[in-house]
Design brief:
Layout lengths: L9 H4 L5 E2 L6 E3 L21 H13 L8 H14 L7 E3 L1 H7 L6 E4 L2 E6 L2 E7 L4 H4 L7 E5 L2 E2 L5 H8 L6 E7 L7 E6 L1 E4 L3 E5 L4 E6 L6 H14 L4 E5 L8 H11 L4 E7 L4 E5 L11 E5 L6 H11 L4 E4 L7 E7 L5 E10 L15 E2 L10 H17 L1
Parallel strand pairs: 1-5, 2-19, 13-14, 14-17, 17-18, 18-21
Antiparallel strand pairs: 3-20, 4-11, 5-6, 6-7, 7-8, 7-9, 9-10, 12-13, 15-16, 15-20, 19-20
Length: 399
Amino acid sequence: MVNRSRILWVILVVVVGLTAFALGSGYTLELPGGVGGSANQSFDDLPPEFDRLAEVWSVLRQEHIDRESLDAAGVSDGAIRGMLQALGDPYASFLNAEQFGVESQDYQGFFEGIGAQVALRDGQLIIIAPMPDTPAQRAGIRPGDVILRIDGETTANISLLEAVSKIRGLKGTTVELLVMHLNVGEPVTLVVERGVIPLSSVSFTMLDDGVGHLRIFNFADNTNDEVEAALAEFKDSNGIGLVVDLRNNPGGLLRSVVDVASQFLDDGLVLYEIDSQGKRDDWDVKSGGKGRGFPVVVLINQFSASASEVLSGALIDHDRATLVGTTSFGKGSVNTLRPLSDGSGIYFSIARWYTPNGTLIEGEGITPEIVVELPPDATEDVQLNKAIEILEQEIAKVG
């Protein structure tokens, strides 16, 4: 079972740069001597197939043309990267000691970088979403962009955290990205000047006819408080129906989304997770929610991921909301950052999330009941319009 106190928000941990899309994955940091044991493990349980590694090294040391200058550390790093790549785990990464030192730090409130979330999907480095009013958004980065090169270096075969480490940087410095926009034939080069990125979570607007529009950008420490404030404003404005907009929301803290889901649910499960030992950990609805007693429509799209998929799955499984939009991203795993004896580290998946009714999120996503595509050349938000239309129908039924 994953120690819940160790679940960190990767938007804060993978901090000074582009935010990794382990975002909200349920991120754990294992320290030497802590959960899982020390970094120095016995080799007695290695399978015989691993004997070939030593055999290859011996052959290279004797016969390779550059045998006198072979870099043992570099070859070892490459072997570890190959081992992780062979897992088929899209989040598995190797970090050298310098990278591990940065990734294992915890930051609060803001970070320095470009302000976007990135994921690996089918071997491509994809922008999930630029955060609002950030250098990434101002530079023209869009959801769904494929990053082809970082400062002239290809992203082919790059791991997620390696990409993040290349894009991160201090305020005032720049990074050059070669990106392919969705539905555009030729890639474009964007130079982004890094800045200080505040971490805002929620916006709320009252629309016409008692309809509220609650937009959740991510799930941070303060998101539940912001949602509570929005719900109070909704009620003070005599709101009678709410659109919860999770489009382009890459996720965040698991405990945060459990709190937010509990605002709308009476009891039962928000989600459960199953770890590598087959053990199940349930996350229950908390009491005292302020978002009950009125109809809700949830908006999702292909860039709604991780914690936003948890919320969507919980609300649909409890018949608490109607889902509108397109199938979500399909990121529902718990990942760990595990130190090695030399100060380097490895990052990999240790558990997967399921909705209350048992739907696997990882690799599958959440499919809305009402599918509405948003055309790339749309002049109006047809997804939001559809959500409002459905909400008004629900309001008419109870009114």
